[in-house]
Design a protein that fits this description.
By secondary structure, this protein is mainly alpha-helical. It has helices at residues 2-26, 29-57, 65-87, 97-109, 125-158, 165-168, 172-205, 213-234, 240-263. The protein has one domain (2-263). The two termini are 23 Å apart. The relative contact order is 0.11.
């Protein structure tokens, strides 16, 4: 049943992505509504998949690349619904659902077996640390989409192409505000994830920090978003600079998530 629910969620996310592409070129209230409907239905099946895996395994399903990629996608969709409800942005779906589908598709290609947790992961820190990290990274993923929207809207404005996407994209001021709010949401969550991870590492390995590749890249990501916030407050960095750094930060998130696990060996390798 879990496999069926996963495939159904993937299918509905794919449908939302297809409609999102149509929305970019021939947007209407109907296409926007269908994107949200498909995303909601996919999210329901996705939630059922995660719950069933939790019931079977007895722990939050985030200990393999399949589970982690799936759970990260779930968190992104959750933040997407929050932003959609809070701001009612036009064209938010087309800049979110393709990322959702790609991550969900990547999850589908990794082994799906449920394995027994190794002793080092049998800790109450597992759910706390990982949930904070995934939710923070989900906020950064949304900031990535908003950053791209900002750069496209700015390009239209500078080139004086005031039709088409320009009229349907939100204002630069609103996009900049949402980008900032998403980073102020994700940054403390990432900070707490690093802190709880340090406490967990001390209890598991006797050391708060071991310069593991994932620890190092998580710290690099933290510094990028710290720079965004610091530069905004002290040097007035807004708009384009903030959008570019948001995109760069998310690329670091993706490398930390996939690149470190697939290319580098360390204590954080998935079982």
């Amino acid at each position: 049943m879990g496999v069926l629910f996963f495939e159904l969620s993937l299918t509905f996310y794919f449908a939302a992505t297809i409609v999102s592409v149509i929305e970019l070129f021939r947007g209407s209230k109907a296409t926007s509504r269908f994107i949200l409907i498909f995303a909601v239905v996919g999210f329901v099946f996705h939630t059922a998949t995660i719950v069933l895996r939790y019931v079977v395994s007895g722990h939050l399903p985030i200990v393999s690349l399949h589970e982690a990629s799936s759970f990260y996608t779930w968190c992104i969709v959750l933040v997407f619904f929050f932003i959609e409800y809070r701001y009612r942005l036009d064209l938010l779906g087309p800049f979110t659902m393709p990322v959702v589908f790609i991550l969900m598709l990547s999850s589908s290609v990794f082994p799906r077996g449920i394995r027994v947790l190794p002793p080092v992961l049998q800790s109450s820190w597992l759910g706390v640390h990982t949930f904070l990290a995934f939710l923070g990274d989900a906020a950064f993923a949304m900031a990535f989409g908003i950053g791209i929207m900002y750069l496209i809207q700015e390009h239209h404005l500078k080139s004086k192409r005031l039709g088409g996407l320009f009229q349907r994209l939100p204002s630069l001021q609103l996009l900049d505000e949402i980008n900032y709010r998403l980073i102020t949401l994700g940054f403390p969550l990432l900070t707490l994830a690093i802190i709880t991870g340090a406490f967990w590492a001390e209890s598991a390995w006797g050391s708060y920090w071991r310069w593991d590749p994932k620890e190092v890249w998580s710290l690099i990501t933290w510094f990028i978003y710290a720079l965004v916030l610091h530069a905004r407050l002290t040097a007035g960095w807004r708009g384009r600079k903030a959008a570019v750094l948001s995109i760069l930060g998310f690329l670091c998130v993706i490398f930390t998530f996939f690149g470190v696990n697939l290319l580098l060996k360390g204590l954080h390798a998935f079982v």
